[in-house]
Amino acid sequence: MNSLKDNKTTEKNKQKKAILRDYLIMGVALIAAAAILLILPERSGAVLNTTKNYFIRLITILPAVMIIIGLFSVWIPRSTIIKYMGKTSGVKGILISLALGMLPTGPLYIAFPMAAALLKKGAKVSNIIIFISAWACIKLPQEFVEIQFMGINFTMLRLSLTIFFVIIMGIIIEKIIKFTRKNPELIKK
Amino acid sequence: MLNYFIKKSIIFVDIKRLLAFVFLIYSVVKNRDKTKKALKIALKTLVKILPVMIIIVISIGFMLGFLPSGIISRVVGEQAGFFGVLVTAALGSILFIPSLISFPIAASLLDGGASIISVSAFITTLTMVGVITIPIEVREMGKKITVLRNIFSFIFAVIIALIMEIIL
């Protein structure tokens, strides 16, 4: 119990150090940027304008994104996702995998152990592939940022195409895996 | 083109904020403690990501301000053709950037003259193909699924980009 607590505190310290390091790097970058603009003043107008423009676009959307990430992580814990993924198949399975993958729950490398656990529990390969892919590239809060920067047309088109191809990819990969299981002599990899 | 996109999305910007706001009110009404925890997580995430965001925004300013106009469009724009698409798709596969940050980068490439096909290939491979995370993926999911998933994701990312270029 005690060692577990120690582990947690060292983990927290590590995170704090990483954040501090990021802010240090940011400070150095700011100083370097200011120095370059002072040496080459003829370009500073364009650079500052663009920077300001992008900064405003970013800062006006970030609070909403962060609040949604925070709310989801509190209201829908990871255990819920594992419970619902289960063994469902067919169209329902596909839709559930897509929906659960889209929830804002963290970076992709967290999804791998979850997906592995689900596979062992008997979830379909196609659903797992759909789940991982949706997790990777169709995150709800991220899409707000995409709309902000790329526009609604670009975002919606890319999203619908991605969903379509992710489903196809899941089905293809499942077929290939089943085929290689039936014909083990064909595997060369 | 981008300006047109921005103007069109203004209405939706407000819907996004409204959505966050409605969620928040609902959460406060349902459970105050949980909401407090959620806001703490939100603030922590913001603090964590802010320095990276600012560095990226400054880099974008310098890239668009200093790179001679035309160089981006020559490497990943219309003139580059299909090779430019493969370059950005490969770049997106190798780089390890949170997708939250990839959108301002993608928008700046578009501003600088990159083609829609290159930019969308970049975004899609950036999120779906992860060369750096392959060791973790192999350990958890096995070699077969990992190889198949990454190869197919790359191919489909290029196909998605092609279709987007045709439609937009």
Reconstruct the topology from this structure:
The complex is a heterodimer of chains A (189) and B (168).
Chain A: H1 2-39, H2 41-59, H3 62-75, H4 78-85, H5 90-102, H6 108-120, H7 125-137, H8 140-150, H9 152-182
Chain B: H1 2-30, H2 32-66, H3 71-76, H4 81-94, H5 99-111, H6 116-128, H7 134-141, H8 143-167
Helix pairs in contact in B: 1-2, 2-5, 4-6, 4-8, 5-6, 6-8, 7-8
Provide a compact summary of the structure:
The complex is a heterodimer of chains A (189) and B (168). Chain A has 189 residues and is mainly α.
Report on the architecture of this protein:
The complex is a heterodimer of chains A (189) and B (168). By secondary structure, chain A is mostly helical. Chain A is 85% helix and 0% strand. Chain A contains nine helices and no strands. Chain A has helices at residues 2-39, 41-59, 62-75, 78-85, 90-102, 108-120, 125-137, 140-150, 152-182. The longest helix of chain A is centred in the N-terminal third of the chain and has 38 residues, at 2-39. The radius of gyration of chain A is 22 Å and the shape is extended. The model of chain A has no long low-confidence stretch (mean pLDDT 85). Chain B has 168 residues and is mainly α. The longest helix of chain B has 35 residues, at 32-66. Chain B is globular and about 55 Å long. At the A-B interface, helix 1, helix 2, helix 3, helix 6 and helix 7 of A face helix 1, helix 2, helix 5, helix 6 and helix 7 of B.
Strand content of chain A: under 5%
- Main sheet record of chain A: none
Please provide the ordered H/E string of secondary-structure elements of chain B.
HHHHHHHH
Which structural class do you get from the secondary structure elements of chain B? mainly alpha
The level of helicity of chain B is: over 70%
Shape of chain A: extended
Radius of gyration of chain B, whole Å = 19 Å
Tell me the fraction of residues in β-strands of chain B, as a range.
Answer: under 5%
The number of distinct β-strands of chain B equals 0
